[in-house]
Write a structure and sequence with these properties.
The structure holds 2 protein chains of 2 kinds. In chain A, 0% of the residues lie in helices and 44% in strands. Chain A is mainly β. In chain A, the strands form 3 sheets. In chain A, strands 2, 5, 6, 9, 10 and 11 form a 6-stranded mixed β-sheet that branches. In chain A, strand 5 and strand 6 form a beta hairpin. The radius of gyration of chain A is 13 Å and the shape is globular. By secondary structure, chain B is mainly beta. Chain B is built from no helices and 11 strands. In chain B, strand 7 and strand 8 form a beta hairpin. The termini of chain B are far apart. The relative contact order of chain B is 0.33. Classes of the chains: A mainly beta, B mainly beta. Chains A and B meet through strand 6 and strand 10 of A and strand 5 and strand 10 of B.
Chain lengths: 108, 115
């Protein structure tokens, strides 16, 4: 069965510290993976997708098929990065399967 | 462009009552999704429409939930009768077309509390 696991409910760091939000998945086919973010009082929005191999707001994520992981990383956290982050896997029907989310708190 | 619109934003009802949510997707978006997000969990897809046809409703509790998108634009999601465990945020999303790399755009959600 398809599943997305985010083991940390909360991750707290200080400004300037590196950040890694963990995401592991189980999927029998070729996965398409995403990170979505929800800032306080804002809508859920796409942050990045693995096929784009892009860096958005300093965040990157590499798909590791061997470890079935898609961890989100940023070398230097900023206070404005504080938000709820969801890892998601897309199936062939466009259905997104979300993880339970990790709340990132960046302290000044 | 205007985003996905949802109403109402908040709703409190008693168990066994009925409730309906409305969603207006981004203009021109053929695909519409309804998600349920229970507190502490990620969104879970309830139903997906392509224009006015259902693509996936495998996780929709059909004994109490129903959804329609009659003209391929707006959509309504109904719960009748509601149970306590239906308390959640109901999110509507839309995308340009199904497949490819088209992004899903989410609405602000409707927070339902069943007492």
């Amino acid at each position: 069965a398809q599943r997305v696991t985010q083991p940390e409910k909360l991750l707290s760091v200080f400004k300037g510290a590196p950040v890694e939000l963990k995401c592991n998945y189980s999927y029998s086919g070729s996965p398409e993976l995403f990170w979505y973010v929800q800032y306080s009082r804002q809508r859920l929005q796409l942050l990045l997708r693995h096929i784009s191999r892009e860096s958005i707001k300093g965040f990157t994520a590499d798909l590791n098929k061997g470890e079935t992981s898609f961890h989100l990383k940023k070398p230097f956290a900023q206070e404005e990065d504080s938000a709820m982050y969801y890892c998601a896997l897309r199936r062939y029907t466009d259905k997104l399967i979300f993880g339970t989310g990790t709340r990132l708190q960046v302290f000044p | 462009e205007a985003g996905v619109a949802q109403s109402p934003r908040y709703k409190i009802i008693e168990k066994r009552q009925s409730v309906a949510f409305w969603c207006n997707p981004i203009s021109g978006h053929a695909t519409l999704y309804w998600y349920q997000q229970i507190l502490g969990q990620g969104p879970k897809l309830l139903i997906q429409f392509q224009n006015n046809g259902v693509v996936d409703d495998s996780q929709l509790p059909k004994d109490r939930f129903s959804a329609e998108r009659l003209k391929g634009v707006d959509s309504t999601l109904k719960i009748q009768p509601a149970k306590l465990e239906d308390s959640a945020v109901y999110l509507c999303a839309s995308s340009l077309v199904q497949g490819s790399s088209h992004e899903q755009y989410f609405g602000p959600g409707t927070r339902l509390t069943v007492t």
